[in-house]
Amino acid sequence: MMIENDFDYETRHNHLMIGGVDSVELAHKYGTPLVVYDVSKIREQINHFKSVFEDNQVEYEVSYASKAFASVATYQVMKQENCHIDVVSGGEIYTALQADFPMDKVSFHGNNKSVEELVMAVKNHVGVIILDNFHEISLLNQVLEELNTTTNVMLRITPGISAHTHEYDQTGQVDSKFGFDVESKQAEQALKMVLDNPRMNMLGIHAHIGSQIFEVNGFVMAAEKLVDLSAEWHQKFDYQPQVLNVGGGFGIKYSEEDDPIAPEKFVDAIVKAIKKRSNQKGINLPAIWIEPGRSIIGPAGYNLYTVGSRKDVSGIKSYVTVDGGMGDNIRPALYQAKYEAVIANKANDKPKSTPVRIAGKYCESGDILIQNINLPRTQPGDILAMFATGAYGYAMASNYNLNLKPAVVFVENGQDKLVIKRQSYEDLVRLDLKY
Ligand SMILES: Cc1ncc(COP(=O)(O)O)c(C=O)c1O
Ligand SMILES: N[C@@H](CCCC[NH3+])C(=O)O
Q: What PANTHER family does this protein map onto (predicted)?
C-alpha cells in the first residue's frame, strides 16, 4: 500500500517498507540507531540529472559531492553509475581508493588543502584539483615540481551571489571563506598564475553558491557570471574554460514546509541559461559539470531509532526519547533543520491530534530531533523512522557522550546489505593510550 502524505512511503502489514524491505525487520536485525539507504533512489536521481543534460545535448559530468555521505559502498555505487565524485580531504581520497574508484573521475576541493593531501591527490592522479586560494597555488606548484609532474586544475570563484538559505549554508557571497573573488580581480590574477604555470592545465572554473537552495534564480545568475567571465577571459587572454562547474546545492524536501522543484529542474534551467548566454557572448559551449550531494543522497536515507522513555510535562509538551540523536544527526541542533517521521511498526495508524517532541539521548537540551510531530500513541520499543536523513547525517556523526556511531545498511530490490558496521566499545578506545 502507498500512503500519500508529505512523503510517499510504502507499507506492508502496517510496517514501513524501504526499498522492498521491512524497516522494522531491519531495525531488529541490525539494531538501532540504524541508517538505511534505498539505493534505487540514489541511482534514480543520478539518472534524472543525466537525462536533463542529454535532452539538452551538452557535454556534462555529474560529480557527486561525497561530503554528503562518503563510504566505500557509496563510492562503489557512484562508480557503477559512472559518476564523477567531489572529495574534500585525504580521508575521502583514501576511502575512494579503497572502493577502487577511478581517480581520473575525482575533483579535489577544499579551502585549506595540506601539502600531504596535495601530494596524495597528485600521486594518485586525481582528475582535477579545484584551486581555492593563492597559498594553494604555490603549495601545489611546489608539489608538482617535487614530483616532476603536471595536473589539471580549476579555479573556484566566488561569484558574489547570496543564496537564500541558512547562513551556514551560503558560500557564493563576496564575504565567503571559499574561492577567488571575481569583483576584486583575484580570480583574474589566479588565472594568470595558472596559465603561466606549465605544470598546471587550466580546465575550467567552478562556483558553488550554497546548499539547500530552493530558488532557481541564484543558480542561473551564477551560471551567467561564469559564462561572462569565460567570455572576458577569452577576449583578454585568449583562454576559454572548457568546463563550467556550477556546484551543487539543489534543495530537497525535509518537512511539509518545503516545496522544492525536482532537483533536475534546477539543472535544466542552468544548462539552458549557459547555452543561451554562451551563444549571446559568441563563445564555444563549454562542458557543464554539477556537484550535487544532498539531492542525490538525502532523500534516499532513513534513520531508524527505538523509542525509549517518555516525559509528559503537564499542559505543555510530551517528550518521546529515542536511542540516538545529535550524534547521528546534528542538523536539527546546528541548523534548526526540520524532519518528518513515522512509527515504522504502526505506519498506517492514525496520528493523535496532540503533537509530541522527539528528543535524543544526548546530554544537551538542544538535542531535539523533531520539535513537533503528530504520531500514533507511542510505547517503548516502537521504531521511529525519520525521512530524508541521507545527506550530512551519518557524514557529520560524532561520538559525543561516547555513544557509538550507528550501522549503515543499503537496501535494493528487496535485499539488505550491511555497508558500515556499528561501532563497538573497543572502537571507541582503539586510539586511546594509557597515561
Ligand atoms: C564545493 C561544493 N560542491 C558541492 C556541494 C554540495 O552541495 P549539496 O549537498 O547541497 O548539493 C558543496 C556543499 O555545499 C560544496 O561546498
Ligand atoms: N552540512 C550542511 C551542508 C554543508 C554543505 C557543504 N558545503 C547541511 O547539512 O546542510
A: DIAMINOPIMELATE DECARBOXYLASE, GROUP IV DECARBOXYLASE
Tell me, what DSSP letter sits at residue 344? G
> Which residue of the set 363, 377, 421, 427 is catalytic?
363
pTM of the model: 0.96
- The domain boundary, picked from 296, 320, 352, lies at 296
H-type helices in 203-311, by residue range? Answer: 216-237, 263-281, 294-297
Over the stretch 253-290, which tens digit does the pLDDT of each residue have?
999 899 999 999 999 999 999 999 999 999 999 999 99
Residues with CB under 6 A from ligand 1: 65, 68, 86, 109, 171, 208, 211-212, 247-250, 291-295, 391
* Identity of the residue numbered 259: D
Q: What is the ipTM of this complex?
A: 0.98
Interatomic CA distance for residues 46 and 290, integer angstroms: 11
- Is 363 tagged catalytic? yes
Residue 222 phi, psi (nearest 5): -65, -40
The whole domain housing 415 covers: 2-31+300-429
In total, how many domains does the chain have?
2
Q: Are both 46 and 154 inside the same structural domain?
A: yes
Tell whether residue 9 is among the known ligand binding residues: no
**104, 230: one domain:** yes
The rounded distance, in Å, linking the Cα atoms of 406 and 304 is: 10
Q: Give the C-alpha separation, 22 to 29, whole Å.
A: 11
- Ligand 2 near 331 CB (within 6 A): yes
Beta bridge mates, 407: 34
- Distances in Å between the Cα of 29 and the Cα atoms of 36, 326, 380 are 12, 23, 18
* Any domain includes 434: no
Do 385 and 409 share a domain, yes or no?
yes
Give tens-digit pLDDT for 69-92: 999 999 999 999 999 999 999 999
